[in-house]
Amino acid sequence: MPLPSSARALKKPRLDDEVRFLRSWIEKPLHMGAVMPSGKLLARTMAHYVDVNSDSPVVELGPGTGAITSALVERGVDQKRLVLVEYNPGFCALLRDRYPQAKVVQGDAYRLRDTLWNVLSAPASAVVSGLPLVTKPMLTRLRLIRDAFTALAPGAPFVQFTYAVVPPIPKSLPGVSTEASERIWMNLPPARVWVYRKD
């Protein structure tokens, strides 16, 4: 039985996003965190760690087509608080169209200090990352989290997902507390969310 036209309309953006993601992954596999956009349950789990009652900015790294961005907005984060740092110019154009009140920054999240130096008006209440950290050397990962903590308000979370079994950033960083979600088996591939806070 064919889907009603309204159901087809709802499925089309997701399919379009999957095609965009796959094309970008084929072109530059190490620049992409995944072959497909994050699943809804994974995106909601990441958004759960963001304080919706704050007025401070929420920085999202590597939003791609906006799967996690959508979960943040659905959770109640005002678009005006969103600072979306995306490297791919095509995804930047898409994000500006979908989230016109958000601030979309085309830049390199792995050079976060340079990318955000004149963007944030206040310390961020969260940094939410969809970056492919495990494909990067450990020094690059550590520099990223150091720069993220510089942008964050004290105690605010750096939220990162990974498909790997081990944490993307070591749990034993001095002065940093960590927590992890349960493994999200409904995501393909299964993923876990790690949250880092500077003590």
From TrEMBL:
Keyword NAD: no
Organism annotation: Bradyrhizobium canariense
CDD domains linked to this entry: AdoMet_MTases
InterPro entries assigned: KsgA/Erm (IPR001737), SAM-dependent_MTases_sf (IPR029063)
UniProt-recorded name of the protein: Methyltransferase
MF terms in GO: RNA binding; rRNA (adenine-N6,N6-)-dimethyltransferase activity
Keyword Nucleus: no
Pfam family, one: RrnaAD
Entry keyword set: Methyltransferase, RNA-binding, S-adenosyl-L-methionine, Transferase
Domain of life, per lineage: Bacteria
Gene3D superfamilies with a match to the protein in the record: Vaccinia Virus protein VP39
